[in-house]
Amino acid sequence: MTDCTDWTDCTDWSRLRHAYGSAEDVPALLERLGSEPDGELWNDLWSALCHQGSVYSASFAALPWLAGAAESDDREQAVQALVLAGAVLAGAEQPHGAGDVRTRYAAETSALLAAVHRRLRTASDRHEYAYLLEAMLGLEGVAGWSEDLSWGLCNEEYEVPCPGCGIRLFVVLGERGFFCTDEDYALADGGDGIAWTPLRPAPPAALDGIGARLHRTALADGQAEIAHLLTYLFGDATCPRCAADFSVAEQVGAGR
């Protein structure tokens, strides 16, 4: 086996693919990110390696670099690396031509998981915590929530189909309240003039499975607000049009 001082020298990037074709441009992009962290460069990397949730052979080849960046003293750089790595590994079961990536990159995945747990305990705000929590699930290979969790927790709404009548519903959880509607609630004043029904949070003691685990983790990390939101995410709602009752979490999954 060739002894390479730089792992990128051991990778024939021209034989790998990303969202826009040959991945031969990836090493230069990674080198720039390593020396001059920049939001636009991270956007470029995301777009190439995890385009709208799709992953490619080059996505996994970048995991060693992401594992290194996750140890950076620059918190933003480290969090970006962890969230991208989580999104990449969330797509490990997609057809990507990279083989058994979880076995091949087991050491990197283990290091990334250790780093994400450290960062979770010191998250700077609710949004960062939600993204890191989702990254943890992606690194662990937890299906579904590794792609859906942070969107609603950060944007304070999920769009889901009603299991009864099929209409699109907004499940709102946050500063505007905790309710379900199929109308443009953002233009309403305190919900006036729209049809809505209140959400019913799950009692923490009644949570089970992934809901119980996430709630327990958030409390242990001092994220009481996230823990509170999770009781609504894993609670129940009623469609304001057809009165069908449903599990919010189940319909978030049904809307993928």
Into how many domains do the coordinates divide? 2
Helix content: 40-55%
**What profile does the largest beta sheet have?**
4 strands, antiparallel
Q: What structural class do the secondary elements suggest? A: alpha+beta
Order of helices and strands: EEHHEEHHHHHHHEEEEHHEEH
Would you kindly provide a written description of the structure presented here, covering whatever features stand out?
The strands form 4 sheets. Strands 5-6-7-8 form a 4-stranded antiparallel beta sheet. The protein has a two-stranded antiparallel sheet with strand order 1-2. It has a two-stranded antiparallel ribbon with strand order 3-4. Helix 4 (63-69) runs antiparallel to helix 5 (75-90). The protein folds into 2 domains: 7-142; 153-254, no CATH class. The N and C termini lie far apart (43 Å). The chain contains 12 helices and 10 strands. The chain is of the alpha+beta class.
Write a brief structural summary.
It is built from twelve helices and ten strands. By secondary structure, it is of the alpha+beta class.
